[in-house]
Amino acid sequence: MLANGFRVTKIHIDFKFDHKPYRKTFIDKFVRKYQEAKANVEKGNFKLILNSALGKMCEGVCHSSRCDVVTDQKDCAQIIADLNFRLFLIMDSKMVLLHRKKA
Question: How far is it, in rounded angstroms, from Cα 46 to Cα 58?
Answer without folding.
Answer: 18
